[in-house]
Amino acid sequence: METSNRFLSRSEIIGFAVLAAVIFIVLPVALDTFRLNLFGKYLTYAFVAVGLVLCWGAGGILSLGQGVFFGLGGYCMAMFLKLEASTPENTAIQSTPGIPDFMDWNQLTALPAWWQPFNSLAFALLAVVAVPVIFAFIIGVAMFTRRVGGVYFAIITQAFAAILTILIIGQQGYTGGVNGITDLRTLLGWDIRTDEAKEILYYVNGVLLFAVLFAAQYVRKSKLGRLLIAMRDQEDRVRFSGYNVANFKIFVFCLGAAFAGIGGAMFTLQVGFMSPTLVGIVPSIEMVIFCAVGGRLSILGAVYGALVVNWAKTTFSESFPELWLLGLGGLFIAVVMAFPNGLAGVYAEHVAPRIAKLFNKSAGDDMPGAAKTPAE
């Protein structure tokens, strides 16, 4: 008999194995390089969705600003890649060679001091996680220590997403403005634009996603995970029991930001650019939709939600370019109304019982010495 505090139950082991087969075997075999790269982009959103399962599903913290952390991680990686592509040889036609092209267009004559550390890949990789976490820590301390939560917290995080978007667009000479940071070519001399590189990055993306999934599973199965659920359901009771609720909320909010930052960095590598359109209110709300459709209580469901919603978004936009937003909204409304626990809820309520019944029946038929009636 399996206990609930095991790191992975039998059904969860099967779930992880199926997801691994889908990501590492089925999709690479079934799709060409272009479509595989699209699904690699979809997987980068799954990092955000997994973080939202911990924040929203387990902790009851609905953040409508996860695009902020996704964008910060993506911009940190893009800054390193852009500096590597902006060598004096590659930018010889500029007025000031050796700086990114958008800085030259905006009449900057030297690389800003805060860009200098991003010449180091090690610093950039550290910043991919550290910058979103620091930003989330500041927001968390400001909000949770004052017991701001629920709808108010969601609106405030949405406001931060809008503010950061405006800031990035307004500081065009330092951030690339509305176009973002584009024309990213190499990673330590390795051309990331080739089909072979995109396939390799897809597999790296999948491996990192599973690392994030295992980290999220560890949190869910730990004492912290149980406290998060208790805080979601009865926050005052947890507080009266002597726990500092604000600290737990800050931690899980920062953890979700770290996951989103990693996803943003992988998006930059997979797609080859980063822009403010991925930071604002609309993408942040879409990320919540990924989590809701997949199931906000399931980390595996969140991954499937990101894949399904983005696949539907691509399909609708290709077939009905003027109606795809209505199709995406209709999909979200239909899932939430018919299946409030998302795809994971559909599986748990309708598919898993049938599979268990089938296995139990097979096991009963195979038992040696099983009593049979004369008719049998």
TrEMBL record:
One GO location term (cellular component): plasma membrane
Keyword Transcription assigned: no
Principal subcellular localisation of the protein: membrane
A Pfam cross-reference name: BPD_transp_2
Domain of life (superkingdom): Bacteria
Compartment list: Cell membrane
Regions that span the bilayer: 13-31, 43-65, 121-144, 151-170, 200-219, 240-267, 287-311, 323-348
InterPro entries: ABC_transp_permease (IPR001851), ABC_transptr_urea_perm_UrtC (IPR017778), LivM-like (IPR043428)
GO MF term list: branched-chain amino acid transmembrane transporter activity
Keywords carried by this UniProt record: Cell membrane, Membrane, Transmembrane, Transmembrane helix
Tagged with keyword Lyase: no
Membrane topology of the entry: Multi-pass membrane protein
NCBIfam families hit by this protein: urea_trans_UrtC
The protein, known as: Branched-chain amino acid ABC transporter permease
Protein species of origin: Actibacterium atlanticum
